[in-house]
Amino acid sequence: MTDATAKAPMARQRRGWSIADIVREYGVLLIIVLLLVVLTLLSDSFLTPRNLLNILNQSTPLFIVSCALTLVIIGGGFDLSTGAIFGVAAVSAAWIALNVDPYLAMVAAPLIGIVLGTINGVIITAFNVHSFLVTLATSLVYRGMAILVTNGKLIPVRIDEFAWLGRQKLDLGGGVAVNVAVIVMLVFMALIMFILNRTTLGRAIYAVGGNEEAALLSGIRTNLVKIITFAFSGGAAGLAGVITVSRLSMGEPQAGTGLEFEAIAAVILGGTSIMGGAGAIWRSMAGVLLLALIGNGFNILNVNPFFKDLTTGVIIVLAVALAAAGNRR
Amino acid sequence: MSPDERAVSVRGVAKSFGGTRILSDISLDIAAGTVHALVGENGAGKSSLGKIIGGYYTPDEGEVSIFGKVVTRYSPREALGVGVAMIHQELQLAPELNVVQNVFLGRESNRYGVLVKGDLERFAALEKTCNFGIDPLAKVARLRLAERQKVEIMRAIARDARVIIMDEPTSSLTEDEADRLHEVIRLLKAQGKTVIYVSHFLDHIIANCDNVTVMRDGHVVRTAPIAGESKKSLVDSMLGQTSDILWPELPPAPDVSVPAVAELRNVATSTGLSNISLVVRPGEIVGLVGLVGSGRTEVARAMFGADPIRSGEYYIDGKLQPRIKVMDAVAQGVALVPEDRRKQGLVLTQTVRPNISLGTLDAISRGGIISRSREVQRVKEMIAHFGIVPGQVDGRVLRYSGGNQQKVLLSKWAVARPKLLILDEPSRGVDIGARQRIHQFIVETARQGVGILLISSELEEVINLSHRSYLLSDGRIFAEEPSSSLTVESALHRVFLEQNQEHPEAAA
Q1: Which residue has the higher pLDDT, A73 or B111?
Q2: For an engineered disulfide with B254, which of B87, B176, B281, B412 has Cβ 3.0 to 4.6 Å away?
Q3: Would you call the peptide bond into B482 cis, given omega within 30 degrees of 0 as the criterion?
């Protein structure tokens, strides 16, 4: 058996990587390394465990949302409603924590997100409308719901048990302490990676995004697969929402505005194809990290923050152009 | 050949993709006003060479001259500028535009960029030359593959191309349509145009070309006038060894008393089938003979649960299947290898491994978690079994030749060990080596007791590889014959006759 495989004519196949290939595949990592070096040289306070953990902690909600959005985009969809679901989950969690139970709030917020995400998925597949349009519309509906139920007011939650999720640190020894939220984020990321790489669902997501008709003709329940990706995206937005409320002790109906675009930027920056069917979680994580490093660099270097968006935009264009240049033949 | 007689001259051209050498040291001359064939197995490099001449690929080494002028910074656009147009194997049309809009894409009648009337008249003039009979206002997305190809050909002619490269132009055409295309080619030649004809159909090449270049493994074996060549001499140089085109021996046909693995009774669908009754027994190869558009593909799709059955009954293993869906069909051991491998078969963003596993994920997983080792082992077995090249488990199937892509697609259903295997054009756009391997696969699968439904535009293939054939026309089965009693000529005669009876006005 192995004998026959070895004899297959492999002579013409050279497994060589040119520099262009490496830049195209791992460009985002190269930019991160470059940024790490520059920031370390420019500031003494950058390369400290405290600052690095702080970066990680601050980006936790974006990490979680981008992670699940990657599933949606690989599956050939697009989700513009994550920011709004984040808002609904935030005010719901604050209300439940105040009026019912703080621990129930932590569980309820992701569940509410899953329900709203599933509604997105069902509308998209039942009416066969592009997810871009559907989630653009539902984002308005969801945001409206968040504002209506709170009358537009903030809901302060000063409950110690509830703050555990966002603020509590776990001592890892050696003076290094990590927020509970960061651990939750890492577990969520590991779960999504596992789903994409090791499960039949992950395979189905890649296939639906890469060639829906081929997936259908292979006996894949393509509609169900799409609904599941949107449910994940909604659930992630809910989880990110409750983490943020817990951290700020405040439920805000406008919370998470613009989060959907940051998440899309992170996924694209990482190099996941917006056409679907290709991409990876580590890419989006690298994209979030890059956005976070840019933000952190502006802080510790005391650069005019007005340049932040401009710089971020330029870097996204460069990253996308780099990837596209490699694809030309 | 004196330099000014050369339409195209290629000197020392080499091309690699991602470390894989596709072409090495290619040199050839193509005389103006001739029809020049490029032949070779899939993966031999003939399509790549066509694409280099057409400006789609840039050579890594060497140079290309068109009418004596060396081209640099060459792209499809610049190729058109010097009179070279390419018609693709994988058609490149705008599906949402209509026929006229596609034919004159980028060359619309206009005044200062504002569209004006006149394209329909220009189309009518073009149609006089081609005589394809396509509705100029039909949306391309609604046309069948064969008709789309005609649109591509008209587009090249509309561009006043002096050199037209045709990549597998007849692979999706019926014999009759192919004959008409060859008439167009003769007409083009009479007008002094040069045609580069890339094809697997050696009969077509011998009948219609002046010169031939045989390629093997990215090299030119030889360039010679067609007059001194035969089908056998061409195949021998393509394969690098002497061989005859042989049909594999069929396993014995199952007895009529054997219960059917699949049976249709008076089935009608919204896709145009009516009153279809057919039987496939285990170990039997059943052919569907008919012209493009006769409903062959629709029968396959109905039996796979891809199109709903409106009336009539469908039984799998004697069990009635009301409202069957693809996943039900797959679960009961039905497999379909669809006609368009790139659009319906493969997920090109993925590698060989997930493509082979896609139809049978449950078999290699437990609780939704895939066993990597079982998967890799299965894929390796398939690579060895079919001789897929390159033989990497995670090879990028997008870059594979047509024959190897088809082998990957067959592997996807071979691993499923189906009871009923439906093959729609299993050897379209595939070289002779791969085709022989696929034929062998069909026969050995039937020998294992699998029922096979075989559909092919090449009548020779259906007739020689099946026990029994159903003859289709206009969504109906009008005859059933033992395949051994059919010949290509008699079968063609009957389907044409049947078609003319249905549409007496079309017979005139």
Answers
A1: A73
A2: B281
A3: no
